[in-house]
């Protein structure tokens, strides 16, 4: 039972953001920064964000050569260049917003492993194509590093470096993001699920779960930043979930390769995380099975990742897998995220794919701007 005080003040908001992933935090933060007197709340069903933002690998990237080539099958060259620009500039924006030290950003470069030995032949084309954006060559031949990284040279026949990629500490990034968002005055409700909403004449009624049962909140504007879980609240959103898995080794007694590494057109990746190796992906081996919003470990993928680790990433090295986890992404036909406005009061910024670390800040900011402009 609500008190008069709760009914008259506490249930009312100017903006409710659903989801405390990168996009939700960025939308709430940017809206509150621009409009300090507005009452903004972020509602999250988990204790921590429970989708992708705290589960990812922490690559600040925009695409390896083979990944961009694969994207080019569905997206035009202009669309792809604009997406690369959004990813690259989005990464810079995230770093500027939170500070490199706070997120442990490391400009260590990205590398693509090549099993055929001809990837470097495509560098010139892609460097030319990306020149308007980066002004200098993005990709360089790194075959001389294959042996010092400890890869099996009979399998890894080529290595191409992307000079503009780096890594961050995902936990530190989300912690810094949440702290900054709270400091602006945004209210957080965690372990609270938005069950449904109703667009009404004077605002939106939002029904949330509480330990005492469902409760109605009211807001002038509603922002769904629920990525893979959006269809529950907005069935017409054109996206489908895609689970991703990550493994981490126990601390190693030897120095793991420093960098962010991709292979199989970006489906697989690994990096060092302190003295451990973090590796993940391989979703392409069971796309149907991984089209789910349920967390879980796919044994087929896990075994293949361990096999990769032992056979060509760190052959003949002592290592043990410590544990595994999964997170849920959202994908669609095109690679660009969706910014939707199903009504004048309800908005959604979703479908971040596998590069939301770079894209999320900018998308959330764009959403915040749109919400204010549309009023
Ligand atoms: C294993 C893995 C590795 C990845 N690696 C990288 C990488 O290295 N680099 C990169 O750029 N990207 C990576 N990504 C992708 C990136 O993490 C995502 O694109 C990004 O985090 C999406 O952010 P988001 O805010 O849109 O969604 P999310 O982080 O999923 O946030 C959505 C939030 O909404 C909440 N929510 C949903 N429904 C409700 C509801 N009804 N009520 C209340 N709350 C709700 C969820 O609990 C969730 O916290 C990876 C993803 C995964 C899974």
Main beta-sheet annotation: 8 strands, mixed
- Strand proportion, as a percent range, falls in 25-35%
Order of H and E elements: HEHEEHHHEHEEEHEEEEEEEEHEEEH
What's the architecture of the domain at 1-108 and 166-239 and 332-375, going by CATH?
Answer: 3-Layer(bba) Sandwich
User: If you consult CATH, what is the topology of the domain at 1-108 and 166-239 and 332-375?
Assistant: FAD/NAD(P)-binding domain
Number of helices: 9
Form type: globular
CATH class of the domain at 1-108 and 166-239 and 332-375: Alpha Beta
Secondary structure class reads alpha/beta
Could you report the average pLDDT, rounded to the nearest whole number? 96
List bound small molecules. flavin-adenine dinucleotide
Subunit arrangement of the protein: single chain
Helix content: 25-40%
